[in-house]
Structure formats: structure tokens, C-alpha cells
């Protein structure tokens, strides 16, 4: 037996044992961290839902204030339109006010609609209006129409008076072309604001937005 063979036999068991020990150590389960780390339990323990209440209350107050200011501005513009048109708050003003809203097409006052609105305003009120009267009133119309924007119009009106307002507005909207999607949406809000039902509009149901 050569010296190299004796040395190999002496060293092999020790090396083999060390390898096994090393492989065993590697085989031990390794504790892994969650992908996003651990969430500090101190934050959960210290969290108080009551701390959110002032923020929620503040948001509610801000929203209510915005609605109140918006309604106040709408009433102010309405009063200005009444002054321009020289009318009270009765059915005649509501009819003319509705058509003043209807003369808008997109971001501009459409000429044919303005012309038709002037004809209706004169016939409805016996007032000697000019195009400038209707245009000036229209420039102070509400440009953003919310679901309840025209609800104020229904108070004290008969179904016949509501239909006069609806038909006058529809006539203005149709003065230049068929109804657009925006026209249908506006007409739908006016219809809901006036409190008209489908039974009032049997012959015109196809013109209303679904």
C-alpha cells in the first residue's frame, strides 16, 4: 500500500462526515420573510378608528358647504334671469327660462335655437323681447345640469302647464337638427324636474333618453 493510498483512507471518512454535516445544515428549513415584510403589530395595537371621525366629519361639512354655495349661486342667476326677462316666478317665466337653457348647443348659443326661442318667448308672454334679451338671459343659465336642477319648476304647476314647458323646450331643441345625446340628457333632466311621467309623454316617448 502506497503512502498516498493510506493518506486517502485516513482522510476520506473525515471529509465524508463533514460533507454530510454540511448537507444536513443546508437541508434545515430556512425561515423566510414575507414578500412585503412583516406588518408592525404596534401600529395595529395603537390604531384608533375614532381618529378618522374628525376627517370624515370634515369631508361631510365641505361637501355640504359646496352644495349650499352651488344652490345659492343658482338662485342668484335665476333672479338675474327674471330681472332680464321682466317676469315673476310663475309659469310664464319657467317656460321662457327652460327655453333659455335649451338654446345652448355644446359651448355656444345656436342661432336657429335662439331664433325659435325668441318666437316662443314672445308668443308665451306677449312681451316685446329681442334676440339680445334671450341671449343675455341664456348667458346666465345654469351650464351644469344636475339631476334635480329643474325640480324648482314643478311647484304649483298643473300637468298642462308642465307640458307647455316641455313642448316649448323640445321645439327649441329641434330647431336646428335632430336631438343629440346631450339634448336627450338635458330633456330627461327637465322631464324629471317637472315631475312628468311617461303617461304624459306617450307620443314623445321615443324622443326621451332611456
What do you see in this structure?
- The protein has helices spanning 3-27, 41-46, 53-85, 91-102, 111-125, 131-139, 159-173, 181-194; strands at 104-105, 108-109.
- By secondary structure, the protein is mainly alpha-helical.
- It has one domain: Orthogonal Bundle (TerB-like).
- A two-stranded antiparallel ribbon has the order 1-2.
- β1 (104-105) and β2 (108-109) form a beta hairpin.
Helical content (DSSP H or I, runs of 4+) = 55-70%
CA distance, first residue to last residue: 103 Å
| Assembly context of the chains | single chain
Find the CATH topology: TerB-like
What is the CATH top level name? Mainly Alpha
Give the total of domains. Answer: 1
Largest beta sheet: strand ordering:
1-2
**Low-confidence residue ranges:** 18-29
Arithmetic mean pLDDT: 80
Biggest β-sheet: count, sense, barrel?
2 strands, antiparallel
Order of SSEs, N→C? Answer: HHHHEEHHHH
Structural class: mainly alpha
Amino acid at each position: 500500500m502506497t503512502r498516498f493510498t493510506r493518506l486517502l483512507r485516513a482522510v476520506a471518512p473525515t471529509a465524508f462526515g463533514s460533507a454530510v454535516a454540511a448537507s444536513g445544515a443546508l437541508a434545515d428549513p430556512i425561515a423566510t420573510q414575507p414578500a412585503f415584510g412583516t406588518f408592525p403589530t404596534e401600529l395595529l395595537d395603537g390604531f384608533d378608528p375614532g381618529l378618522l371621525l374628525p376627517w370624515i366629519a370634515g369631508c361631510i361639512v365641505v361637501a355640504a358647504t359646496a352644495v349650499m354655495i352651488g344652490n345659492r349661486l343658482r338662485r342668484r342667476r335665476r333672479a338675474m334671469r327674471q330681472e332680464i326677462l321682466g317676469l315673476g316666478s310663475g309659469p310664464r317665466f319657467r317656460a321662457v327660462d327652460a327655453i333659455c337653457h335649451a338654446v345652448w348647443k355644446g359651448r355656444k348659443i345656436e342661432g336657429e335655437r335662439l331664433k325659435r326661442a325668441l318666437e316662443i318667448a314672445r308668443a308665451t308672454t306677449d312681451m316685446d323681447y329681442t334676440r339680445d334679451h334671450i341671449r343675455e338671459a341664456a348667458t346666465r343659465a345654469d351650464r351644469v345640469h344636475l339631476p334635480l336642477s329643474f325640480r324648482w319648476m314643478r311647484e304649483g304647476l298643473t300637468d298642462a302647464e308642465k307640458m307647455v314647458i316641455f313642448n316649448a323646450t323640445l321645439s327649441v331643441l329641434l330647431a336646428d337638427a335632430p336631438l343629440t345625446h346631450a339634448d336627450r340628457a338635458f330633456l330627461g333632466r327637465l322631464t324629471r324636474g317637472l315631475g312628468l311621467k311617461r303617461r304624459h309623454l306617450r307620443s314623445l316617448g321615443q324622443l326621451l333618453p332611456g
